[in-house]
Amino acid sequence: MNWNEFAGWGRKVADWAQDYHMTVGDRPVRAQTAPGDMLNALPSTPPEQGEGMDEIFADFEKSVMPGITHWQHPRFFAYFSSNAAAPSVLAEFLTAAIAPQCMLWQTSPAATEMETRMMDWLRQSLGLPEVFQGVIQDSASSATLAAVLTMRERALNWQGNQQGLAGQPTLRIYCSSEVHTSVDRAIWVAGIGQANLIRVPVAGDWRGMDPAALDAAITADKAAGHLPAGVILCVGGTGTGATDPIADCIAIAAKHGLYTHVDAAWAGSAMICPEFRDYWPGIEDADSIVFNPHKWLGVQFDCSAHFLKNANDLVRTLAISPEYLKTHGHDGIINYSEWSVPLGRRFRALKIWFLIRTYGLEGLRNRIRNHIAWSRQLHDKLCAEPDFESVTPPMWSLWTFRYVPEGAGDLDALNLDLVNRINDDGRIYLTQTRVDGKLVIRFQAGTFETTEGDVMMAHDVICDIARSLS
Ligand SMILES: *Cc1c(COP(=O)(O)O)cnc(C)c1O
Fold first, then answer.
1. Model's pTM, two decimal places?
2. CB of 399 within 8 A of CB of 389?
3. How far apart are CA 440 and CA 462, in angstroms?
4. Residue ID of nearest Cα to ligand 1 atom 12
5. Residue 90 pLDDT
6. CATH class of 3-68
7. pLDDT of amino acid 235
8. Coil, helix or strand for 233?
9. CA–CA distance, 172 with 152 (Å, rounded to integer)
10. Domain boundaries of the chain, sorted by first residue
11. DSSP alpha helix (H) spans, 27-175
12. Pairing mode, if any, of strands 227-234 and 171-176?
């Protein structure tokens, strides 16, 4: 394909994308295809001769689109929303066209400096103090891995990378039972081992870590000759929005000299609204915080904002400077590849800039406030029905419920059946989780185009389908 044919196709793609977004609400939310459908639609061998874009595009519409679950659908209430607001999609298109590698300042100075400025815009938006610096990671999982590696190096007096972990005291890291599985994987990859990730019990409505139990666990580990290295806290856990008492837990960590990382991947976006910051009092004392603008804030995936109280600890952990990567003559500039595990980096700051300038913080806050208000309205309406119960209360826009009709036998099986039937129906999309061993259904609202009508329609869909089960 020549670049002189590109613009025509670019316009066609733009028209297609506009139409897709304006009509996505007419499609079933979750893909309704069977395993193997896409695989069987694709030839088992690659073509020897090139094909025309007409044919390729037609096949895309015919074979690919039926197998897509529509994350931008206004009635996507599963997992957490992963938004792609229009201006951020335009920025991604431009980034794809320029395709810069943003590993060093000199490999794209504008990208580095915009990343610094955008991370500071986000810092201010969340009400974090000026001491925090930031870097954009590809995912919250990567940010958490970087934080765990920092905990490890700091605890080992910066010798782990060089000497490995053999012969060292056993490192210990603490978190609640409600953290995301990305924490487990960070522990595995860092060589610390699952057995040394200590699960502190949770208590209360927010299902947050019990600070006294954290203190006791650290004290016992020290007495046993282990080496406590850090505490991972969660604000808005994936299952039910579990939130640790940040100030109390950080105070315990500080007493023992431990590094703290806060995973607010989903709920962090809501902190642009000052009224929700009561959920993380004391956050200014954390060493490391991650949230995903690519979830609720509206930025096209991928874009994970990682804030650091002392970026030097991270750079000391991850920087490698071979001669061919040195940027001679530019002392004091930032090379963001020294702040993350991968070397190559995309130009992700551009889509934050496009997004925030288009809507303004006030526009973004209004959306989040609406999602939370509508979600709570639905919670109150559904859980007032005689055969539904609220299991965990709304945390921001997330809550869980069960269908509990009188005389029902196996409630886990009944609720799993219900969620599957709802998703087969296609008007809304929900997922399940477990709370204290019980299977429950989650609801969250956070998609950019969701309206109050979309959220309230979930009430009718859930009730109709539940009551049609025999
Ligand atoms: C989504 C999520 C993650 C994982 O985010 P990635 O960016 O996909 O790695 C981690 N923690 C929480 C609480 C999440 O909601």
1. 0.96
2. no
3. 13
4. 265
5. 97
6. mainly alpha
7. 98
8. strand
9. 9
10. 3-68, 101-346, 368-469
11. 37-41, 53-59, 86-98, 109-126, 140-155, 160-163
12. parallel
CB contact at 8 A, 237 and 207: yes
Residues of the chain scoring pLDDT < 70: 322, 324-332, 470
**Options 3.90.1150.170, 3.20.10.10, 3.40.50.720, 3.30.70.1230; CATH of 368-469:** 3.90.1150.170
**pLDDT value at position 333?**
87
Bridge pairing between strands 133-137 and 202-203: unpaired
Taking the CA of residue 234 as reference, the ligand 1 atom at the shortest distance is: 13
Residue bearing the CA closest to ligand 1, atom 14: 265
- Write out residues with Cβ below 6 Å of ligand 1: 80, 139-141, 180, 182, 237-238, 263, 265-266, 292, 304
| Residue 377, token pair as written in the block | 């309205």
How far does residue 141's CA lie from ligand 1's centre (Å)?
Answer: 6
Domain 101-346 is found in CATH 3.40.640.10: yes
Q: Which two tokens stand for residue 392?
A: 């965990």
Centre of ligand 1 from the C-alpha of residue 62, in Å = 32
Q: Where does residue 410 fall: left (phi above 0), alpha (psi -120 to 50 degrees), or beta otherwise?
A: beta
- The pLDDT assigned to 325 comes to 65
Q: Which residues lie below 8 Å from residue 349, measured CB to CB, with a gap of 6+?
A: 111, 114, 115, 117, 118, 119, 136
Q: Please, what is the Cα angle at 377 between 373 and 383, to 5 degrees?
A: 145
> Do the first three CATH levels of 3-68 and 101-346 match, i.e. the same topology?
no
